[in-house]
């Protein structure tokens, strides 16, 4: 049975004490709780304590338009700033994240409900991404010479130009990193950003604005518009020059369609039903520990967390009991200490959705090995880590993304069956392979149709490698974050070609036929000179 526990020797910070820590975090980050707001506003409630956090303005389409116009003015100045100035702002942001580590951790926990270790992952990713683009952005965006039509006579340089104002629509599950990390790449590329955060987690987004301003950015360069997505999403897409969206596949499809109608770029990380393969030779202890983290980090509210586990029949009898014991030992807690392994879910509505998936599976004949129930003794939205067997096609949990602490286990006869089942999904975001044979693991990983595969890890190895691209295939999205692709996508290329000495046309007195013959001879010769096409 899963019960709330605290780390030995560390006092839990829950209830009123956690609320006070949250209010102190707002003050430390320079934020107002909005208690004195006039006009339409939205109340924000903590899933950690059930208490009010504060109020934010319920903005409308006109507010979005005004924010974008202010961002355009700031962007024109920012685009002229040298790369070293942009880099300085991003490195200052990096330093502020660590300097204000404790209030940021408190705010992220208070607003999202996640365990402190998972909030720390957000801080680490934000700082790492800011550092990465501060140090590499100039190289990724540097002008590059290309081979010209006539070597020596045609000089060609390709430049990367900022798109203008980037609209970012970020979700509640990672309110810090999915607001800040996508923004820093766009800013380093010379753009401004207007961010629409989820209505459950706006204060963390507002903290990012304060951090960037303290880092030296123009306050209008990164702006936050608060309000329901149904009211602000379309006006934002209609006003900006590019869109970055993280969320469900259904909403992402609608976002991409609207952006496509305006012919503006869109990048989207969407849903996943991520598989994990346990090969027959996988070391049980390490694999169990990694699988638990892969499934239950952030209470499973992670696009790249694992929901399907395919276990080789030779490992099944050793692996399953050990995994159940590990899941049952997880500490579920609604507090700001470091002792909890999992926090509560984001809302009562999301709790109902997660449990509905489990209940539907049980009604269809699936077996709950552990969990399968809410934990009201922990908090009103807490749910036990859950493992299922006997899940079959037709059950909601079989193919639909649960986005909670629920994973289904399947016995497979060999690697071929595991890969076939892993690929039997429209999603293609993340996967994991556990094996003692790394070479075999790499070969198997290459056959799984997903954007990232982790070998002997669940998700953090790929996610934390900020120099490498991350994103989905199929119904899991468009474009990539991180790596060169994560910043180049916020630019458009411009080719400038300079023709020297003579134009690319028949000189005076030379007929078109003779000119064509000469050009044909040159182009045939060029076939033997591969260096010309660099």
Topology at a glance:
Blueprint: H1 15-28, E1 41-45, E2 52-57, H2 61-79, H3 83-99, H4 101-112, H5 116-141, E3 144-146, E4 154-162, E5 165-169, H6 177-188, E6 192-196, H7 202-214, E7 222-224, H8 229-239, E8 242-246, H9 249-261, E9 266-269, E10 274-278, H10 284-296, E11 306-312, H11 313-328, H12 348-363, E12 367-370, E13 386-389, H13 396-399, E14 406-412, H14 415-422, E15 427-428, E16 430-434, H15 438-445, E17 452-455, H16 460-463, E18 473-474, E19 477-478, H17 483-488, E20 491-499, H18 512-526
Parallel strand pairs: 5-6, 5-8, 6-7, 8-9, 10-11, 10-16, 11-14, 13-14, 16-17
Antiparallel strand pairs: 1-2, 3-4, 4-20, 9-19, 12-13, 15-18
Helix pairs in contact: 1-4, 2-8, 3-5, 4-5, 4-7, 5-6, 10-11
Describe the structure.
Helix content is 43%, strand content 18%. It has 534 residues and is α/β, with parallel strands linked by helices. Strand 10, helix 10 and strand 11 (306-312) form a beta-alpha-beta unit. Residues 1-10 have low confidence and may be disordered.
Overview in brief:
By secondary structure, this protein is an alpha/beta fold. Helix content is 43%, strand content 18%. It is built from 18 helices and 20 strands.
How far apart are the first and last residues' alpha carbons, in Å? Answer: 63 Å
- By secondary-structure content and strand pairing, the structural class works out as alpha/beta
Helical stretch count? 18
Rg over alpha carbons: 26 Å
Largest sheet: 7 strands, mixed
Indicate the percent of residues in helices. 40-55%
Mean pLDDT equals: 95
Total strand count, please? 20
Unreliable stretches (pLDDT < 50, length at least 5) are 1-10
Classify the beta-strand content into a percent band: 15-25%
The geometry reads as globular
Strand order, sheet with most strands:
12-13-14-11-10-16-17
């Amino acid at each position: 049975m899963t019960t709330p526990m605290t780390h030995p020797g560390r006092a839990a910070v829950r209830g009123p004490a956690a609320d006070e820590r949250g209010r102190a975090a707002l003050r430390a980050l320079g934020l107002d709780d909005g208690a004195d707001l006039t006009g339409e506003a939205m109340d924000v409630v903590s899933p950690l304590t059930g208490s009010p956090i504060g109020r934010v303005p319920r903005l409308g389409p006109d507010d979005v338009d005004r924010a974008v116009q202010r961002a355009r003015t700031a962007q024109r100045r920012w685009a002229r700033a040298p790369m070293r100035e942009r880099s300085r702002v991003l490195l200052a942001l990096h330093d502020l994240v660590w300097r204000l580590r404790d209030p940021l951790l408190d705010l992220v926990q208070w607003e999202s409900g996640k365990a402190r270790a998972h909030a720390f992952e957000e801080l680490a990713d934000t700082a790492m991404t800011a550092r990465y683009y501060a140090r590499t952005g100039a190289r990724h965006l540097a002008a590059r010479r290309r081979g010209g039509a006539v070597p020596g006579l045609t000089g060609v340089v390709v430049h990367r130009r900022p798109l203008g104002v980037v609209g970012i629509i970020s979700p509640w599950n990672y309110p810090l990193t999915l607001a800040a990390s996508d923004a820093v790449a766009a800013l380093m590329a010379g753009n401004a950003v207007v961010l629409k955060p989820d209505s459950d987690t706006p204060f963390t987004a507002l903290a990012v604005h304060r951090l960037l301003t303290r880092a030296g950015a123009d306050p209008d360069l990164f702006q936050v518009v608060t309000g329901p997505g149904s009211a602000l999403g379309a006006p934002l897409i209609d006003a900006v020059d590019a869109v970055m969206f993280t969320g469900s596949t259904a909403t992402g499809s609608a976002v991409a369609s609207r952006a496509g109608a305006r012919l503006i770029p869109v990048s989207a990380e969407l849903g996943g039903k991520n598989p994990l393969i346990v090969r027959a030779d996988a070391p049980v202890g390490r694999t169990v520990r990694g699988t638990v983290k892969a499934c239950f980090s952030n209470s499973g509210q992670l696009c790249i967390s694992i929901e399907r586990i395919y276990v080789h029949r030779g490992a099944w009898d050793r692996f399953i009991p050990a995994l159940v014991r590990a899941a049952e030992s997880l500490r579920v807690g609604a507090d700001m200490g470091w002792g909890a392994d999992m926090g509560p879910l984001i809302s009562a509505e999301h709790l109902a959705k997660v449990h509905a998936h489990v209940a539907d599976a049980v009604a269809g004949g699936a077996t709950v090995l552990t969990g399968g129930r809410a934990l009201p003794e922990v908090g009103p939205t807490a749910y036990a880590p859950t493992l299922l067997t006997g899940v079959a096609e037709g059950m909601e949990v079989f193919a639909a993304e649960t986005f909670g602490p629920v994973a289904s286990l399947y016995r497979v006869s060999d690697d071929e069956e595991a890969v076939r089942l892993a690929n039997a999904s429209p999603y293609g975001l993340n996967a994991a392979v556990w094996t003692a044979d790394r070479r075999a693991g790499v070969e198997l990983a290459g056959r799984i149709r997903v954007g990232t595969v982790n070998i002997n890890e669940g998700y953090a190895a790929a996610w934390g490698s900020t120099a490498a691209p991350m994103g989905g295939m199929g119904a899991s999205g468009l474009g990539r974050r991180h790596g060169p692709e994560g910043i180049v996508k916020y630019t458009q290329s411009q080719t400038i070609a300079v023709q020297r000495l003579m134009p690319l046309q028949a000189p005076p007195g030379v007929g078109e036929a003779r000119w064509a013959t000469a050009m044909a001879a040159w182009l045939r010769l060029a076939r033997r000179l591969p260096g010309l096409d660099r």
